[in-house]
TrEMBL record:
Annotated InterPro entries: FCP1_dom, HAD-like_sf, HAD_sf, TIM50
The protein's name: Mitochondrial import inner membrane translocase subunit TIM50
Main location (coarse class): mitochondrion
Organism: Hexamita inflata
Function: Essential component of the TIM23 complex, a complex that mediates the translocation of transit peptide-containing proteins across the mitochondrial inner membrane.
Subunit description: Component of the TIM23 complex.
GO cellular component: TIM23 mitochondrial import inner membrane translocase complex
Family listed: Belongs to the TIM50 family.
Length: 285
């Protein structure tokens, strides 16, 4: 098995301020008490039940109809941001304006790609039982069987040709690393971020795209989980949840991304695909 270059994993072992307690870097290392207290306070303040009521928020979001949809999305984000900024400013001991990614040498729009249930699916069941139709499955040392979504390699090749590719998973570091090592998947991506880079809010791992250090006008996030993208809804293309089934979702995403790339501004391109997104989400289970 090929070893992935470690500099692709931009992990910061000191960044516990907004990271979950059960952090990949904390496998066998207890978190120091001041940091733990900090985290407890963070969690305590982040009592946000809305808009995380269920995992079908994508459906609800895309069910909203113009002309009010944009205003409603803006309102949800504004309320969320207000809560999160007020509280974090009070409890963070370190500035959090440091970017996760180094500067780009040459401009490319940035594609942030979720891992679980977007391009792969992991289960404790054996592949024989759970995923008879999955195109490719592998058993890993952590006891999980992971299935990779159909057309994954052509999809990643397309992404690599057209975007700076950042895999950002809410999974723990070791889990993400082993999956990205598998079959050279890491060769298709520029950077890998894991759970430590997420904000942990009321049981949800949130990917705050503002932390990437990229112009958000040219960032797109592909994710199956609405709560991941609540801070950057305008950047998100919802992905049909993958649970080991045979489907053509990744090819559908390529078609959509091609259209989005026709625009100078990626966010404007995403906006033009809202109707398509809405229809796609309505056909989800
Ligand atoms: Mg996911």
């Amino acid at each position: 098995m090929k070893t992935i270059s470690i500099n692709k994993f931009l992990i910061d072992h000191t960044r516990y301020d907004s990271s979950p307690i059960k952090s990949p870097t904390a496998n066998n290392t207890p978190i120091e008490m001041p940091q733990l207290r900090l985290h407890e306070r963070f969690s305590e303040f982040m009592q946000i039940d809305e808009p995380f009521k269920n995992s079908n928020m994508f459906k609800d979001m895309f069910a909203l109809q113009p002309p009010n949809r944009r205003e409603q999305i803006r309102e949800i984000r504004k309320n969320f941001k207000r809560k999160i900024t007020v509280k974090t400013v009070a409890i963070n001991t370190k500035p959090i304006n440091e970017n996760y990614l180094p500067k780009q040498d040459k401009f490319k729009p940035t594609l942030v790609l979720d891992l679980d249930s977007t391009i792969l699916f992991s289960t404790q069941q054996t592949s024989d039982v759970k995923m008879p139709n999955a195109p490719e499955t592998a058993r890993f040392n952590d006891g999980l069987t992971t299935s990779f979504r159909a057309q994954l390699y052509p999809f990643l090749q397309f992404c690599r040709d057209n975007f700076e590719v950042v895999v950002w998973s809410a999974g723990e570091y070791d889990y993400v690393q082993t999956r990205m090592n598998y079959c050279n998947l890491a060769d298709y991506v520029d950077y890998v971020l894991s759970r430590n880079h997420c904000k942990y809010v009321n049981g949800h791992y949130i990917k705050d795209l503002n932390r990437l250090g990229r112009d958000l006008k040219n960032v797109v996030l592909l994710d199956d989980n609405f709560s991941s993208c609540i801070l950057n809804v305008q950047n998100c293309i919802p992905v049909r949840r993958y649970m080991g089934q045979q489907d053509d979702e990744l090819l559908q995403l390529v078609i959509m991304l091609r259209k989005i790339l026709e625009y100078d501004c990626i966010v404007r391109g995403i906006e033009t695909q809202m109707d398509v997104c809405r229809k796609r989400m309505q056909t989800c289970e």
